[in-house]
Design goal:
It is found in: Cell membrane. This protein is mainly α and 384 residues long. The protein is 79% helix and 0% strand. The protein has two domains: 2-95 and 113-183 and 304-370, no CATH class; 187-300, no CATH class. It has helices spanning 2-15, 20-34, 40-51, 57-96, 104-132, 136-151, 157-172, 187-206, 212-225, 230-240, 247-259, 267-275, 281-310, 314-343, 347-363, 367-383. α2 (20-34) packs across α4. The chain is globular.
Length: 384
């Protein structure tokens, strides 16, 4: 089971470009639609829960999926598999000083994969919208959620949207219950995770200086306090790591994280690698990666346990319905800005996106097939 979960997530980790919103689409397409590892309702509630927890949202969803499939070992397998390709590439960026980043073919492939991310997000919005916006009230929640995020595109807008939607849904949608997921996160695992998180957070707050322990402590605090995913962690890390790295290095790490597949929190991998002493690049990179991811993963286990304990109450289920609809609006807003302007810059690219979306809906190809088509297209466009 461990290898099976690891391999599926590893393949996605090699091909999941486009950031957290796209990752949600990749996971849904592969694990809900194609493999049937979870139901649409279970998956949507993991997504909703990840929106109100600090940490890397898409990695938390993958972690929950892995736990659902194979317990703690499955969760670890999902995290390692999805994160490993990005960690390796970020280490290479640090070691090679991004020497290949200006290569014409590389840039062509990157542009094509950005278009692919648009297609995958469109597919996620379409599928989740059909499942969770079936009534006029849930469609209205999704629409207002999209408008809210577009008008207030700040780091905490996603969290505020989910909290507001939950409060509204508890009152307005309490008469339209949905099923809750049944992932058996036991009390012992939940409390052990919470205890470990609190102990590590306190230890991190007490560590000072400029050494390896202090760096990992700052990264752990950043992973514990950031809401909204990889794009939001940059300003927090800029403040947390002011004594360790320059703004230039942080921006380079941010750019590199967007150029590789997988979670954007691996910008911490780059930071650890460039600060490592001779011979310690891999060790520092791995420790930095664990430091920033661990708090969000621990809290996801805690959140799942308490969510399933209260998820049977009508008002809680109404809140879940509203949050699911709000997440659809959040995905739509993220697609409109910043993903579309950064990916689709001409009429031909728009046509490619529409044709690929129609192909995805009609034929339901595997993700590797979609990636292959776009990579080949990127190479051809760069060379010719």
């Amino acid at each position: 089971m461990f290898f099976s979960v690891f391999w599926k997530f590893f393949l996605l980790g090699c091909t999941s470009f486009g950031g957290p919103a796209a990752h949600i689409g990749y996971f849904r397409k592969e694990f809900v639609e194609r493999l049937g590892w979870a139901t649409e309702t279970e998956y949507a509630q993991w997504v909703a829960l990840s929106q109100i927890m600090p940490g890397p949202g898409s990695s938390q969803v993958g972690f929950a999926m892995g736990y659902h499939r194979g317990g703690i070992l499955g969760a670890v397998a999902a995290f390692v598999g999805f994160t490993l390709p990005s960690v390796v590439l970020m280490c290479l960026f640090a070691a090679l000083d991004s020497q290949f980043a200006d290569d014409v073919v590389f840039q062509g492939i990157l542009a094509a994969l950005k278009l692919m991310a648009v297609v995958v997000i469109l597919d996620a919005i379409w599928g989740m919208g059909r499942s969770f916006c079936q009534s006029y009230r849930t469609r209205l929640v999704a629409l207002l959620g999209m408008v809210f995020v577009l008008l207030w595109p700040l780091g905490l807008s996603g969290l505020l949207l989910v909290l507001i939607a939950g409060a509204v849904g508890a009152v307005w949608l309490a008469d339209t219950p949905t099923k809750t997921f049944t992932t058996p996160v036991s009390r012992s695992i939940a409390y052990a995770s919470l205890g470990l998180f609190v102990a590590l957070f306190v230890m991190a707050a007490l560590i000072n200086g400029n050494g390896a322990a202090a760096l990992m402590a700052q990264l752990f605090q950043a992973g514990s306090l950031v809401f909204g995913g990889g794009h939001v962690v940059l300003p927090l890390m800029s403040e947390q790591l002011a004594n360790f790295v320059s703004t230039t290095h942080l921006l380079t790490a941010y750019s590199a994280a967007q150029a590789v597949p997988g979670p954007m929190f691996t910008l911490a991998t780059y930071i650890g690698a460039i600060l490592a002493p001779d011979g310690g690049l891999v060790l520092w990179a791995v420790l930095a990666t664990l430091a920033i991811f661990l708090p969000g993963l621990l809290l996801m286990l805690v959140g799942q346990h308490f969510w399933q304990r209260v998820g049977y109450y009508p008002r809680v289920q109404g809140a879940v319905n509203a949050i699911n609809a709000a997440v659809v609006g959040l995905l739509a807003a993220t697609l409109i800005f910043p993903i579309l302007p950064a990916s689709v810059t001409g009429i031909w690219q728009a046509i490619i996106v529409l044709l690929a979306f129609a192909w995805l809906r009609a034929k339901q190809p595997a993700i590797w097939q979609v990636v292959t088509v776009f990579v080949v297209g990127g190479v051809v466009s760069a060379l010719f």
